[in-house]
Amino acid sequence: MILKRKDLIDRLEESGKEFVKWLALFTPDEAPTPPGPNEWSAREIAIHQRDTEEQVFLLRTARALQEEHPIVTSFVQEEWSQAHPADGESLAKIIADFRAARRKLIRLLRNASSREWEAYAMHPKLGKLSVSLMAEFNYSHTLNHLAQLVDLHEHAMLRKLNE
After folding, report:
1. What letter would DSSP give residue 54?
2. Which residues have CB under 8 Å from 141's CB, separation 6+?
3. Helix, strand, or coil (residue 158)
4. What is the distance in angstroms between the CA of the first residue and the CA of the last residue of the chain?
5. Residues 51, 58: Cα–Cα separation, whole Å
6. Gap between the Cα atoms of 158 and 152, Å rounded
7. Does domain 5-162 have CATH number 3.30.870.10?
8. Residue 47 to residue 91: CA distance in whole angstroms
9. What share of the chain has pLDDT > 90, as a percent?
10. Neighbouring-strand partners of residue 130
């Protein structure tokens, strides 16, 4: 997907807002409940989205803008979650953390020059990750998890109707 810079940033910003709106539809009982075995709950999706926003997209973008071709590492959600459990965190805090990270990222992207937009980080498996490519990937990542939330919400509504 190739979007113009402003359109991509606008869509990235709006998709973050939409993600938060869908999370707000889940009750305190629904949010931590996965729809089935080996499936993520809305809370787990929120944690993952927050973690990747902070530890992948924001961090890598900031480094690419501040350093010359920094080497970045792979992000493995399971390892991160074990090292940084979110058990005691409320959904409200997780959402606030995500929103803060997304706002910082949007500000970085809006303030980046055309030259900085093509700055890049080096990933051991993925190779050259330009700021523009990371923004596109983040947008796609957000849409994927937004679709998961929509499906989960539908599942919760259907379960209520069948009770």
Report:
1. I
2. 49, 52, 57
3. helix
4. 42
5. 10
6. 10
7. no
8. 8
9. 75
10. 120
| Number of CB atoms found within 10 A of residue 153's CB | 16
Residue appearing with tokens 């900031």: 62
Structure tokens at 66: 């501040």
Contact 69, 122 (CB under 8 A): yes
Measured in degrees and rounded to the nearest 5, phi and psi for residue 76 equal -115, 110
The reply to whether the predicted model has a pTM over 0.90 is yes
User: Which tens digits make up the pLDDT trace of 135-146?
Assistant: 999 999 999 999
Residue 121 phi, psi (nearest 5): -115, 155
Residue 5 tokens, joined: 């810079």
Q: How many whole angstroms separate alpha carbon 34 and alpha carbon 26?
A: 12
Residue 63: CB atoms within 10 A of its CB come to 15
